[in-house]
From TrEMBL:
Protein name: TTLL3 monoglycylase
Main subcellular localisation: cytoplasm
Subcellular location per the Swiss-Prot or TrEMBL entry: Cytoplasm, Cytoskeleton, Flagellum axoneme
Stored PANTHER family: TUBULIN MONOGLYCYLASE TTLL3
One Pfam family this sequence matches: TTL
Any one Gene Ontology cellular component term annotated for this protein: axoneme
Biological processes per GO annotation: cilium assembly; cilium movement
Gene Ontology molecular function: ATP binding; protein-glycine ligase activity, initiating
Gene for this chain: Ttll3_0
Entry keywords, A to Z: ATP-binding, Cell projection, Cilium, Cytoplasm, Cytoskeleton, Flagellum, Ligase, Nucleotide-binding
Compositionally biased spans, kind Polar residues: 171-182
Length: 525
């Protein structure tokens, strides 16, 4: 009569215990008891022994008796891993479910990429200021746009490399190893004399491409039919092969004084037009991701255009359809801690979509890689921070000993680190406002695609990288963030966010002034 029947699907002992403490009765799904027996005694290995005992099922307990009595009743509250895994017969109009339908519009890499492309038509916001530019390779127009972007980024990168080498004093890069000479383009493409830089025309071509691109960005081509910079007479296959030698194999570049001034001037103007100019670096690294996978599956980093296109169209993974890939500009200049890359897992809850109502969790955690950050080595251990990826790697001998052994920090530990850098205000003045704004923009961009009914809710986990300027960059949003802790920090935080979520979506209905823990309302339409 009180409508306090619940069903839990998945490894959520804390949810089960918290609901029972509120007087709720569990309707167990068929086979759940046998499934629990098979997993005992390592049923909840991430919990302390005393908490695990509280989660154990006593066959003679009042909970089992009550579960038997409500076995034919529909649950009023459902907490499940995935909405698709829930029996449709259990989903009624008046029950509360911890998921919405249609959220793949922002919780898959492909969906988020498409939704944020539409953002400028929904609100006055530029996704390029918080989301690394991204393309769906299965869509011909986007694939062509990516190729053009790769070309333009290579041209900008070449000018950055040329300026770096010029500097205030001549800096000679390493000699090209003999093994690399097989990659050199045909001699007819080079007019270099013995002892001179191998590609004297390369800087001139890059300057011309960047000039044309700047004109497009400044809308100087509106009244004339200027072709795209990537459709000029440049042989881009040759240009890229020569750029690869400069960027990755140590080939030299030499600038005249005039070219040096042109490079400085052009790059300064491009930086004013391109929000991602600084974070994109100078090695043209891109990250290729299956469009609907999670936990780092299938992700690779690469610097070669041909590798991106070949990988996306010759996929051997049975779970990824050919062409269902996204490619995203890799952040080459992240903030690192003790020389190691990290990302931030940030939770938030949506309790309504009309009006859109969003609650931000004030606690979060950092995830570290197992090896020092390096753009000369693109293996997963250095570049993918997912716990599900890093658990397969041991900490490398060259890793700074100050990196936490379990590769996890709380946001409070991060704030202490920022204070040591003299940047104590960066967390509250730059990072948190930036994360909130990015989350709200992503939600608004996909709002019309979500199907929902009143009373339900969903807990999400957003992943962010941090730039050298402390600006947060949204990577993805997960609809079923893991609650299986991998460290002492996440054991506490994952338990807290589950308890606080129940306070927010259940207790607050009866008592609007009750504590909701670390949640704060950041948006209500």
């Amino acid at each position: 009569q009180e409508k306090k029947i619940f069903t839990v699907q998945g490894p959520y002992p804390i949810i089960r215990r918290e609901l029972r403490a509120r007087g709720w009765v569990e309707r167990k799904l068929p086979g759940m008891g046998r499934q629990l027996e098979q997993h005992h005694p390592l049923r909840y290995p991430w919990l302390p022994a005393e908490e695990e005992e509280q989660c154990d099922e006593d066959p003679n307990s009042i909970h089992d008796l009550m579960s038997y009595l409500v076995r034919n009743r529909l649950p009023n509250f459902i907490w499940t891993n995935f909405l698709d895994a829930t029996d449709p017969e259990l989903l009624q109009q008046d029950n509360v479910v911890n998921h919405y339908a249609g959220v793949d519009a922002f919780t898959t890499k492909e969906g988020l990429c498409l939704s944020l492309q539409k953002l400028p038509w929904i609100e006055q916001a530029d996704p390029n200021t918080f989301f690394p530019r991204c393309y769906r390779l299965g869509i011909m127009e986007e694939r062509e746009a990516f190729i053009e972007d790769f070309h333009l980024t290579a041209a900008r990168s070449l000018l950055k490399l040329a300026l770096e080498e010029a500097g205030n004093r001549p800096v000679r890069t390493q000699q090209v190893p003999n093994s690399a000479k097989s990659h050199v383009s045909h001699p007819k493409h080079s007019t270099a004399r013995p002892g001179s830089p191998p590609y004297p025309e390369l800087v001139e071509e890059a300057l011309e491409v960047c000039k044309q691109h700047l004109g497009v960005l400044q809308h100087q081509d509106i009244d004339r039919s200027t072709p795209s910079p990537c459709r000029t007479c440049i042989d881009w296959d040759r240009f890229l092969q020569q750029y690869y030698r400069v960027a990755h194999e140590g080939a030299r570049l030499v600038l005249t004084n005039q070219e040096q001034k042109q490079c400085q001037n052009l790059l300064r103007h491009l930086a004013e037009q391109l929000p991602q100019f600084d974070m994109e670096g100078k090695l043209n690294v891109w990250i290729l991701k299956p469009g609907a996978e999670s936990q780092g599956k299938g992700i690779i980093c690469t610097t070669r255009l041909e590798e991106v296109l070949q990988q996306a169209w010759s996929c051997k993974s049975p779970s990824v359809q050919v062409g269902r890939w996204v490619v995203q500009k890799y952040m080459e200049r992240p903030l690192t801690i003790f020389g190691t890359k990290f990302d931030i897992r940030q939770w938030f809850v949506v309790t309504d979509w009309k009006p859109l109502t969003v609650w931000f969790y004030r606690d979060c955690y950092l995830r570290f890689c197992s090896r020092p950050f390096s753009l000369r080595h693109l293996e997963r251990a250095r570049h993918l921070c997912n716990v599900s990826v890093q658990k397969w790697y041991k900490t490398s001998p060259d890793q700074d000993v100050r990196v936490p052994h379990d590769k996890i920090w709380s946001n409070k530990q991060f704030q202490e680190y920022l204070a040591q850098l003299g940047q104590a205000d960066a967390w509250h003045q730059v990072l948190v406002p930036g994360m909130k704004a990015a989350i709200l923009s992503a939600l608004r961009s996909a709002q019309e695609q979500v199907r929902f009914h009143k009373g339900s809710f969903e807990l999400y986990g957003a992943d962010f990288l941090v730039g050298e300027d402390f600006q947060p960059w949204l990577l993805e949003i997960n609809s079923c963030p893991t609650m299986s802790p991998s460290s002492a920090v996440t054991r506490q935080l994952c338990a807290n966010v589950q308890r606080d979520t129940l306070c927010l979506v259940l207790d607050r209905k009866d008592n609007p002034t009750c504590s909701i823990g670390a949640f704060e309302l950041i948006y209500k339409e």
